[in-house]
Amino acid sequence: MPLIAELADGGRADAIFVGCGPGSFAGVRIGVAAARALALGWQVPAYGFSTLALVAAGAADTIAAADGALVVMEGGHGQWFVQPFAADLSPRADVRSLLPDAAVRLADTLVVGNRAEAFVERRGSGTAVPMLPDARAFAALPATAIFAGPSPAYGRAPDAKPMVASA
């Protein structure tokens, strides 16, 4: 927030766009909360997008040439977030959180993301494009990747379990 305040006009924008995850539980919640607060304070709309879609957008030309790709990102607890994208960057399925041995059964030849190299090595085939989310790729996101009412997308079930009441 202090860095935003240092921008011209206090960083004020006509709209706010925020990555909604999946990703770090705290990071996603803080980012979405900050974006929604700025939008409320500035009375501008807030929009969200998937972190995996942003990663795909960062490799847009490579994905188009390969007629699609699988984005594979670290998911925590030994799991990977995976989501296949078509050549036009539209998702071909929902985000899933899978253990690596289950993830490598997915068929895409081109694999993009921060776990791409580990994925291709484990599977023994494919082309890895190591990549992290990069805000500079935002312009390559298709309009269908942007949604109103941003809220956190965690990618897997919560780790916390409700306490059992004692008698």
What would your notes on this structure say?
The chain has 167 residues and is of the alpha/beta class. The protein folds into two domains: 2-50 and 135-148, ATPase, nucleotide binding domain (Nucleotidyltransferase, domain 5), CATH 3.30.420; 60-130, Nucleotidyltransferase, domain 5 (2-Layer Sandwich). The protein is 30% helix and 22% strand. It has helices at residues 2-6, 25-42, 51-58, 60-66, 100-103, 116-123, and strands at 16-19, 46-49, 69-76, 79-85, 96-98, 110-113, 127-130, 147-148. Strands 5-4-3-6-7 form a five-stranded mixed sheet, with helices on both faces. The chain has a three-stranded mixed sheet with strand order 1-2-8. 32% of the residues are buried. The mean pLDDT is 93.
